[in-house]
Amino acid sequence: MPLVGGFSIGRWFGFPIRIDYSWFFVAALVVWTFTWREFPRVLPDHKQSTYLAMGTVAAALFFISVLLHELGHAVVARTRGITVDNITLFIFGGIAQAREEARHPFDEFLLTAAGPLTSLLLAGIFHIARLGAEVVSAPDPIVTVLGFLALLNFVLAVFNMIPGFPLDGGRIFRSIVWAVTGNLVQATRWAAWGGRIFGGILIVLGLTALSRGILLGGIWSILIGWFVVNAASTSFRHFQLRQLLGGIRISRVMTTTPLCVSAESSLNDAIAQYFMCNRQLAYPVEMGGKIAGIIHIAKVAVVPEHLRDVTQVVEIMDPISKQNSARPDETLADVLGRAETAGPCLLVLTNRSVVGLVDLNEIGTWAGRVKKLGLLAISEDKWGDDESLGQQNPKAVVQPHLEESV
Questions:
Q1: pTM metric for this prediction
Q2: CA–CA–CA angle 360, 362, 365 (5° rounding)
Q3: Residues 6+ apart with CB under 8 A from 184
Q4: Which of 14, 118, 194, 348 is deepest in the core (most CB within 10 A)?
């Protein structure tokens, strides 16, 4: 759930790690809080440079702890056959972005519980390290930082176990209700309401704290409460969207005869002959009689105008990869998350041959109309026979499904 975009910092255990730009705000706030408030309060009479070093080290280790918490989710998800696209650190912590929902309540329980258990394990490790530092008479700043990290990881585990979606406790609650009722939609709705209620309580507590002059604590409580309320609602809408798109195969909505551009063409030629003459926002790139990649309009736009006549398409195209391609038998829910890193248009491949192009922007617009009308179940068997596949605007038969409406 990144807020304002971000960038990659590499991979841990095979998972891409991203930093959302909003993270820098909370990182600065955490360092400031440690340096100017907490450490001077619990460990007085030290130099300000000492507090700054303590605050910086504590903040760095805390964010690594948050990352390990999310890695706990991701590693267990991978063992249960669930693909995690990336792990993102952002303003209110971190998120492991899974490509699909858990298939069974037990899978949901296991991969969710892994996060808080990781935080509890880290709390124990830092606590033991603090005790060891005391035994060897380590400097007080080291002992204090280790103690803070033990406490923060314990609080992180406890906070995440509150039964409100999308917190870990809310997901565990959802897995239990799902196992008992056999109804994932109902379980998600109940868990989302738990998140809204919990977030509302935090906002009220924050306003109460502000009225009593507790400025920093009140602001934090209001911000976190606002985030939880919005995240609960957003997560439930996202769940509904995935349910909707999960029954629609790529082959039903892809363009089967996408125009292709030559790899040797200049960007000016590509603009004049393709981007300005057709609706496609991306084009397969043909090189040596084969499709070698894809070129998006956004990649062309960043090339300065005076260089477009001497820049060939092959120089800025994206080579074919798992991120910018899909199979005809995959569903829209399977590929929707790829738009964030690969762009809105994906090549559709069968045995390394391009059989179509899908524009996820158009799918999002269409799905939004369906949701606004309250029609959240699609009968795919009424889309027509195979000859209708690949049309730009397939005539779907949409049926109302009150159980899944908001």
A1: 0.68
A2: 110
A3: 101, 174, 178
A4: 348
